[in-house]
Amino acid sequence: MNRRDFLKSGVLLSASSVLTFPYLTGATLDEKPYNVGILGYGNRGSGLYSILDEMSDKFHVSDICDNLPFRLDQAKNRTSGKDIRFHHDLNSMLDQKDLDAVFVATPLSFHFEHAKAAFESGKHIYLEKTMTFSVEQAQELCKIAAERPNQILQVGHQFRYSPLYFKVKEMIDSGYLGKITAIDARWDRNHDWRRYVHSPEFERQINWRMYREYSGGLAAELLSHQMDFIHWAFDCVPSSIYGIGGIDNFKDGRETFDNIQLAFRYEDVGMVGSFGATCSNKQEGYIFKIKGSKGMLSLLMDDGIFYPEEEVREELAEVDGVSGATKLTWTDNKQGIKLTDRPLKEGTYYAVEDFYRCLQEKRMPYSNAFNGGQTAIAVALANESLHTGSVQPWREDYNLIDHPTAKKSVG
Q1: Which domain holds residue 145?
Q2: Other CB atoms within 10 A of residue 81 CB
Q3: How many CB atoms lie within 10 A of CB 56?
Q4: Is the four-CA dihedral 343, 18, 411, 219 of positive or negative sign?
Q5: Domain for residue 363, yes or no?
């Protein structure tokens, strides 16, 4: 790459451009708070409540539903004095005529059933990832979404809304990293993933992530975020998926693996993806590395560094140091370039903010039934491979964004 090319592409890493995006900073429409209900008031549902309550000019939490009595008691205690209706039954909440949208934060195995019910009641839907439990459910929910274009379904893959990851996509699209051939992604912890159970009969309902009847395990709960970003950033899907894993540490009756490694082949773009997670070591924690012929991106959830290859680093140093045409912030050891110069909010905030804009503008979300469905299929295939030991090929009918309703905003 010559100096002129670097002068042109170097702007991508300037401090002024890293965190500015039209869909987050455009003109504000007439604001109207929407009445929303939260379905499932566990850790995720209560976290969503915090964000929605902070955005009270956009959303009013009018309803909370959970089938566990002590969860509803927790919600009532926390929201004492606020105008909120509480429900033990989903249909009771969906029957509320003034309810505009439902935030679904229930176990994965219920996502399809609950999203379908919300569709049928005429509500808009924010559905936590992964969109569905099975391939067939993903295909069916896409059909329902296509038949109801005036209802919005947004899937909670937050990276499609993160200013940092939007910038990374721009870098990939521009060729800044050169030819990218390898993705290394991990999400590790040293914890049994077990939650406190109030009484033994609630074990499977509270610790649902540990049981295959309800959960997609580590692939769904953690690695699906990184898988989904690769689909978006490279406009691709895997051609084949192979996984290995086991219950290697916590012999406590769980059924989902506590240690997995997945290999994804992206034949159309000439790339291999390695996705792994363990519950036995937290030293590296979250890792997301995108490796190209001109450099590597090393990403966290809210920060990132670009490590150029040696020849490219010399060229960048010359452009920055001699011409002053770009404003690059190098790491202390001068080996990498920082991608952010300010703190970012928690990723859900950006996603929920755009959900509000989708409701106002009546547009399809960036993370929607079609691309969210493809990621759900990838996760389902990964789990099928983990439990059968077989390579899972990607079939033509898994290409959900080919559906006529999947407009160009699908991405």
Answers
A1: 26-158+399-410
A2: 5
A3: 10
A4: negative
A5: no
Q: Are 11 and 17 in contact (CB under 8 A)?
A: yes
Give backbone dihedrals phi and psi of 246, rounded to 5 degrees, phi first.
Answer: 180, 175
Q: Judge contact between 381 and 351, C-beta under 8 A.
A: no
| Residue where the block lists tokens 């493809």 | 374
Average pLDDT, the chain: 90
Question: Closest Cα to residue 373, out of 319, 321, 410?
Answer: 410
| 283 lies in the same domain as 317 | yes
With respect to residue 350, please indicate whether it lies within any of the assigned structural domains: no
Residue partners of 147: CB distance under 8 A and separation at least 6: none
Query: Is there a single domain that holds both residue 294 and residue 168?
Result: yes
Residue 133 has, within 13 A of its CA and on its CB side, a CA count of 16
120 and 166 part of one domain:
no
Q: What does the pLDDT read at residue 331?
A: 84
Rounded to whole angstroms, the Cα distance separating 350 from 25 reads: 11
Q: CB neighbours (10 Å) of residue 43?
A: 11
Residue 241: inside a domain, yes or no? yes
**What one-letter code names the amino acid at 61?**
V
Q: Tokens representing 106?
A: 């229930």
241 and 201 in a common domain? yes
User: What's the distance, Cα to Cα, between the start and end of the chain in Å?
Assistant: 28
Q: Are residues 389 and 404 in the same domain?
A: no
Query: Which residues are CB-neighbours of 53 under 8 A, at least 6 positions away?
Result: 61
Number of domains in the chain: 2
pLDDT tens readout for residues 60-82 = 999 999 999 999 999 999 999 99
Residues 210 and 131 in one domain: no
**pLDDT beyond 50 at 4:** no
- Distances in whole angstroms, Cα of residue 363 to Cα of each of 56, 152, 358, 359, 405: 22, 8, 5, 7, 12
What tens digit of pLDDT does each residue of 140-195 get?
999 999 999 999 999 999 999 999 999 999 999 999 999 999 999 999 999 999 99
CATH number of 119's domain: 3.40.50.720
Q: What distance in Å separates the CA atoms of residue 96 and residue 303, rounded to the nearest whole number?
A: 41
Q: Residues 183, 319: one domain? A: yes
Express each pLDDT in 379-397 by its tens digit: 999 999 999 999 999 999 9
> What's the gap between Cα 93 and its chain centre?
26
Whether residues 58 and 69 share a domain: the answer is: yes
**Cβ 145 vs Cβ 405: under 8 Å:** yes
Domain contains 353: no
**Are the C-beta atoms of 228 and 158 separated by less than 8 Å?**
no
Question: Residue 250: which CATH number?
Answer: 3.30.360.10
